[in-house]
Structure formats: structure tokens, C-alpha cells
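FAQ: What does a multi-protein file look like?

Like this. Sequence, then C-alpha cells, then the next protein.
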Amino acid sequence: MVALFILLLVMKVKICALFILLCWTVFASAQTTTSRRDAGRYGYRPKLLRGPYLQVTTPHSVIVRWRTDELDAGFVRFGTDAKKLDQLAGNNTRTKEHIVTLSNLKPSTKYYYMIEGFKDTLQYDHDNYLSTFPLAGEKGKYSIGIFGDCGTRTTNQLNSLAQFEKYLGNTPLTAWILLGDNAYSFGSDMEYQANFFNTYKDHLLKKSAVFPAPGNHDYRDEPYAAEVAQRSGEIAYYQNFNMPTKGEAGGLPSNTPAFYSFDVGNVHFLSLDSHGTEDNGSRLFDTTGVQVKWVKADLEANKNKDWVVAYWHHPPYSMGSHNSDTERQMVKIRENFIQILERYGVDLVLCGHSHSYERSKLMQGHYGPEASFSPEKHLLSTSSGQYDGTPNSCPYIKQGSEKGTVYVLSGSAGRVDHAQASFPHDAMPFANVEVSGASILEVEDNRLDLKWLRADGKIGDHFTMMKGVNKKRTIELAEGETVTLNASFISDYKWSNGAKTRAITIKPAVGKHQYTVKDSKGCLEDIFEINVTKK
């Protein structure tokens, strides 16, 4: 009996030991699996695969995004002093796609930032900084990058980027926009990683928010995706970018990432979708569709903006690698849509699609094929607009509610292609299909400049547009009073009294006086009639 008891006791001990060993094995296995997946708690250090990149900058907020190879928490430390990042945003939720909003920021302010996981700093160097936008309507100096058809992973793309950054130098880039076909050939996530994020990650993405528009290649370049992806959001384009759909960056809420608007100070932008279809099957050229109804309402609500710029992928005018006389989307956009923009006085339209650079003069009212274009009928200015002292190159000038639009096709940030036999299009005389390049939009107060920056380091084209210049004013003064006269334009200055500054302060004698200020190129002149009465 004792022997049997001892035998049972030994067997029980062995069973317990076996159970403990089995539990330890399961626990150790779980620890090993978790260590590969948990961001730092058990020792594994996730790697940064993408980013950081900035999205939806506003005067008071900005979104910072990045991707890790394993699940991890996501935090952003930030502050106005690079040596004192005293604010924190983010959370402990473990994910691979990190989307962190920095809130309660000050307008027009530079912030430094660092991205962190559960345990480690994932990325931080001297280029980790961002600047919030100015308040809507505020005048300042703004630089907007324009990249069309850029995601090719070619030397053309790299050279275009290099020359763009060389031109920028130490000038901060306020924001940049994408004109579609951002990742060739089918807009897959893998292509976005290789052709877009890997190219721009150490350059523009971490310092300036990007505001994209989609192209046909972002929709996989197939009809099925165009029919459903705008609504389902299944394509990489919609998964990789955040858009200001609630009006948080200015403009009216669109409630869809397909199209939206935003403000950069006194410039109002509309990003549109020319390829996807909406709920009722309509597209950008269907004037009763959801998108066009929103465009009309947004433009109506933003008549007070100094400048209005619209951009999308398919151009209304091109004889580059695509033909605007024969391709349905381009034809219908020209016939049905652009007259709405012109009616609301949109100043500038930017497109891609053709792998070329093409640019119009200030024009209005041409909605037919190339052969119907008439300079006498459709041009509001015959000037080149280049404002460089060459013959007939004065700026395009719009006064008050005057209409007129310049159309720019800048689709060669990643490649150049063949052209149609009639290249350039009659309405787009400033054109090049031989060299790649990106463009930059520079706005200061009532002056707008666009420059096409070629991949070979040259400025291939440029134009200037101004508003509210060439003014004539009458000023009444009493004897002994002083007055400051300000030129209405931004340029160089030649005052009738010999001064060369934008503003002069004078104390004229009793009587009638005339002061004038001109630019050195003979394009601009303000006249001040001053009547001084005796006390």
C-alpha cells in the first residue's frame, strides 16, 4: 500500500512537471512571437519604412504620417525650439500606419519635430521641421511646388527634384501639389513606396505638406478602378494621403478625399479629380455632378480671395503625349467645365497627363478644338507675360473683377515623351517636350509668378500676373502735412523725384503736385495727384 502511494506521488510530480514545462514552452513561444511584433516592450525595434511626411497643414494644425515594419505606438515630440521639444502628440495604439495630428499650433510658425515609437526615436535630424500656414487671406510670400506625373523612378525624376531644390536654396517651400500619376504604372502601394516616397522622403516630404490630385495611373489605369475606387477608397492613393475634406484648411467641406480646397494665405486652391466617377456615375466634365456642384459653391464662397488656382490631371489643351482634340476626357473638360472656372475668375489652371510643359497666355472663351483657337478672339493679352525686358513681355494684369486665365501643363517632373504632329497646341505657345522639369508658384501680395524649372538647371519658362496695379490717386493735404506714397506693384521702382524704394514719404508745398512711380521695364505706372491747401 505504501509502495502504491509512493508510485502515485511520483507520477503526480512528473505530470505536474510536464505540465509546467508545457506551459513554459507555450509562454516562451508567445514571447518570441510577440518580440517580433511588439514595438519595444519585448526588445524588438521596429524600423521606419516610410516617412515622416506632412499632410493637411492649416494655420493651427498639421498631420504627421509614417509607416513602420511592425506594430508600434506612435508619438510626435515637437516645439518651436529645436533643443526643446516640449509638446507631445500621439498614442499607445499599436499600428504600422501612424497618423498623428499636431493641434493648437500658432499660425505662420516654424516647429521642429521628432517621431517616436514605444521605446525608440524613429527619426530626427536637422531637417525635421514644419511651418503652419498663415491665416486665410493673409498676404505674405509663399512658394508652392508643382509636380506633375512625377512617380517614375527615373533619372528624369531625380534630376527634376535636384534642380528644384537647387533653385529653392534656403527659401522655405510653403507646400507642394501633385497633378496626378504620382506613382507609375498602376499606382500600387509598392510603386508608391519605390517611386514616390523613397524619392522624396529625405527632401520635400518631411518639411512641406503635399496636397495631391489623382491621375489615371493612380486609379490603376483601368476603367474598373475609376468606376468604384473614388467611393471605396481601395486604391493606394486614398490610403496613402490625408485630405482636408471638412474644410479645416479653408474652403467648403467636400466630405470626400477625391476633391477638396484649401487656403495658403491669400491664395485659394482647388484640387480636383478628373478621372474617378462619383456616386451618380458623373465625372468632372458632367456639370450637374457632385464634384462640379461643389466647385461652383466653393468658388462662390471664396470670391474674396486674392488668387484662385485650380488643379487636376487631364488638361483641356495639349498636343504633347496626349491629344486634347481626340481624347474624350480632355475634350469634355474643355467643352463643359472650364467655362465655369473662367466665369468665376479663376486665375490659374494647372494640369499634367501629357509628359511635357505647355503654357498659354492670358485667355478666355476657347472651348473647341485646336483649329478654332483665335488669338484675336480668345486672348486677353498678347504679351508673353515673362516680364523680363524682352519685347511684348509685360505682366498679365487683372483689375477688379476682370476675367482671364492662364493654363499651365506641367507634366514632366518624371518623364518626357513624344508629341503630336501639331505640337505645340495653338493656345499653348510656350512648350517643351524634350526636357523634364517641375514648376514653382511664387505669390507675394498682388503679384503671382510661375517658373518652370528644367532638369538641366535652366528656367525654361516663366510668367508674371498682377492685380490692382497702375493706379491713379488724388490726395488732399493741408499745408505742412506729410504723406507716404506706396507703389501698387512689386518690382523695381523709379519715382519722379529720383527715389528707388517702394514707398516714399513727402511734405509738399502749397499747390498742386504730381508724383509718378514706374518700373524699369516700362510696364507699370502709378500716378499720385496731390493738392495741398494753405492753412
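And here is the next protein:
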Amino acid sequence: MAAASIPVSARERTAALILLGAATLLRLPYIFHYRINSDEPQHLHVVWGWTRGLLQYRDVSDNHSPLFHLLMAPLLALIGERPDAVVLMRFAIVPLALLALWLTYAIATRLFDRRVALWSAVLVAFHYNFFFKSIEFRTDNLWTVGWLAALAVLVGGPLGAGRALLTGVALGTNLCVSQKTALMVAALAGGAALVAALSAEVRRAVPFRRAASLAGAAAAGFAVAPLAVAGFFASKGALGAFIQGALAQNVLADLGAWHDAWRLMLFPLGLVLVIWFLLPRLRVAGGDRIRVQRLLIPLVAVLYVLVLESLWPLVTGQDYLPVFPLAAIVVAAGLDRWERMSIERAGDGAPLTRSPAYVLLAVLVAQSGVIVFKGSVWRDRTVQQKNLVSNVLRLTDRDDPVMDTKGETVFRKRPFFDVLETITIEKLRRGLIQDTIAEDIVRARCFVAVEDSSRFPNRGRTFMNENFVSVGILRVAGRLLPPAGGGALHMRFAIAIPGPYAVVTPAGAAAGSLDGATYSGPRELEAGSHDFIPTAGLQPFAVVWARAIERGYSPFATGRGPA
């Protein structure tokens, strides 16, 4: 018989709380200095759209569920349009990280005891991937909390219709945060079905009729939030845009590639291993609810990973955020069991080993080292993003469009509607989405674009490289002209985007004639060919969107901002 649970000593509790406090405080410098992932301004751009009265999917392109962005809109409205908005919005993620730790503790307490729960929370807090992703401003943090909340409700007591209904509501609400909740639901339903299929004791404890009733209650609860969200967009006449953005946009089938064939094989192979591992443990668990749940929770985590890696079109590090807390519980419970077995052996005369404590210490030291050195907290790696937004706010007015890739300019609309994330780029490459960037830039009279990027499709990229000039961290409409020799030189150039332009040199305004009239300052130019004849001087010339010159920017200046 296994030894009884080991109570948490005052010293152990103090050590764990100090570690949790240290992990929380350590987040503060990283909030200000940790590099900004391209997803963060993308999410913030959508949030900004809500603050401007723009409707997600219809007016602002996005491929995520809307609940996170809606909840964050009041905070951004309070902060306002400022260069460090992404950094400041990260503070909204800290409570979510703490809530995830508390829910990890709550789940582990229900399944094991407070000692396992306490060290589970510590292990999660110092997991390097969880640490860094739970700093970033992204939907996945709220999604992880929603998932853990659903599991906490599920294991919180005997399973009845009310608990099944609440679990369904939590999962349905979480679907409104991230579509990947569908993978979780599939893993949870599959895990429950697998346990029932492999255990006669579970089938006797929960007969088919009762299981069907519980599943019905969970399904009813699950439908509440998604139907409410769909109803909201339908009331705005944007149900089609919602379905396209939140659902259809993420569908990308490519089953012909060898790596996708390998991914499809991963699920059945993994399932065979899961069943092999699960069968003997289910026999030991019998029909005991807590023991079965101890197996079900890690089983669901494994099934989620198998479904994710087998079927989801794009797998990223943040997709694993909900797995880390469950893995931490398994590790903490395993170390605790190891120590209890050691105590049991010591009672028979064997020496007591401290190996579990040493393993835990080694894990924490290794994770802390990764956090410190990977994060490079001593370097401020948010400067470029803040500088970009600062220049956009200085150079453009509130209603001016800016051609960016994923919304990194945050507070400006893009003339080309689709956000250029990975799936959109692949659809552009395959011709499933048309590259209309050039036409959209001209139609919207967009005079500002971000620096050249491989995210831009070839046709649009070529157009911008030919019709925009760099003025630091941004590009503006215009062209560099060949240098003039001594005496008059006829310069012919083309304008693609009609609007106000200035002809300049490194020294300032150019002298000469533009389209046959003396050039005396910025002039409205139509799309097409134009002629400039400089008065004299061996120097480079450029024709540039006039407002950039007025606000201190120059194609001849060096550095990342205005001259």
C-alpha cells in the first residue's frame, strides 16, 4: 500500500510562494524589454479597430475568434494611440498568467493534494515557453485560462448535468477566444470515449443513457456563447464576414505533401501507444472517479497534441500553452509519488533518498537559466516596434492608410484588406487570394508603407519597390531620380499614386522646371509620366510625397526616423 500524502511543511510552502513571487516579479522587466512578436501588434490592431467603431472581419481583417479583442478594447481606449501601446497592453496579460497558475493549482488539488498542486504551479511559472508566451499580448493566454477553467469545473466534484453544462459553457466561451478550442473538445470527448471503451468499471459507473444525458448537457452549454457571437455579427449584417474570417480563412488543405502524409500517420500510431499505456492503469483505477480523472486529464493533453500535430494547418509554440500546466501536474505528481515510495522503503530499513527534490531543483534551475539568457532582459528589444509606431503617428493623420503586413503599424488601416499572415501568404502563392496590393494602394491613395518584407507577394512587392522610397523606418510614395550633371538635364519619371509631391535634393528643395513650369514647391501630380529639368548641380534628386518633406522626412537622410 502506498504511503499517505506528504503534508506541506511551512518551510516548503514558504519556498514555493517565494518562487511564485519571483516568477511574477521577473515578468515586469520582460514586459518592457522582451522582443515584440509579430502577432502582438496584429492582435492590437484588431483591438484598435473595435475602439474606432470598426467591425472585426468586415472592416478589419483577422483570422482569430473575437472575444479577446472585444474584452481588450476598453483598456486600449483608455491607453490611447501611443508608440508603447503594445508594451502597456502586456500588463493585461499578467492577471491571465496568474489566473492560469491558480487554476493549475486548483486542478492539481482536486486530483492529488495541495503539495502536488503547489509545485505544479511553480513548475508552470518557470517553464520558459509558458513564461515568455504569457508575457506577449496574444489571444492564447485568455484561451489557456478558459481551457483550465473548463477542466477545473469538470474535476471539481461528481459529474452531473449541472457540471457538464457549466463545462460546456466554459468550452463554448473559449471557442469564442480561439478556434483551437475545437481541438480541445475533440480531445476531451475522445478521451472520455476511450476511457469508457477500455474500462468496464467506468461503463458501469456511467451507463450509456447517463453518458448521453451528460453529453447533451455539455453540448447545450457549449452552444451558448458561439450562437451569441454569431447572432451579434448577424445583427450587424456581417455573419458572412465572420464565417469567412474566423473559420474559412484558416482552412488550407494540402494532403499531397509527404510531411502532411507523415502527420496523418502520427495520430493512429500515437493512439496505439496511448491505449497500450492506458489499459493496465485503468484496471488499477477501477471505477474510482478521482483515479479515472487522474488518467483522463493527461490523456486529454496527449490526444490534443496528437490532433494538433496531425490536423491543424499551422502549429506554433503558443499552441502548446494549455499543455504545460497539465504536464506540470503529471511531473509534480510523479515526483511526489517517488518521494512517498522512498519513505515507504525507508520504513523497511532502506535509506531515505532526496532524489525527487534534486530533480525538481535541477528542472527549476535549468528553466530559470533559459529564461534569463534567452530573454536577454538587459537589452530593450521593443525599440524597433515603438519607433515604427512613433513614426507612423508623426508622419500620417488618423484616417491615412498605411500598407503594412500584419497590422504592425497598429493605428492605421491597410489598403489591402487581408492580413499577411502565414496562411494568407500561402493562399496568395497558390492563387486562392488575388494580389491586388498595387490597385488597392492607388485606390486608397496610400502614400506610406513599411519597409520591404518577404511577406509581401511578388506583384505587390515589386510595385512598392518601384514606387516608394525609404525615409528611414518607413517608405513613402516617390522615386529617386538620376543625378544631374553640369547644366540642364531632362529627367522623366512616372507617378503611380496621384497626389501632392515635392522634388528635393539632399540640401532641400530642388530648383528647375516641372512639366514645363517653374518648380516653386510641392505640386499635385496625376498618375503617369512627368518631366523635371533641374537648373544645375551635380547632386541626386528625388520626387517624394510632399507631407513627408513637410514633416521632416527625407529619402537622403540616414537613420530610422525623420531628418
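Q: Is there any per-entry metadata?
A: Some entries carry free-text notes. For the entry above: DSSP finds 22 helices and eleven strands in the chain.
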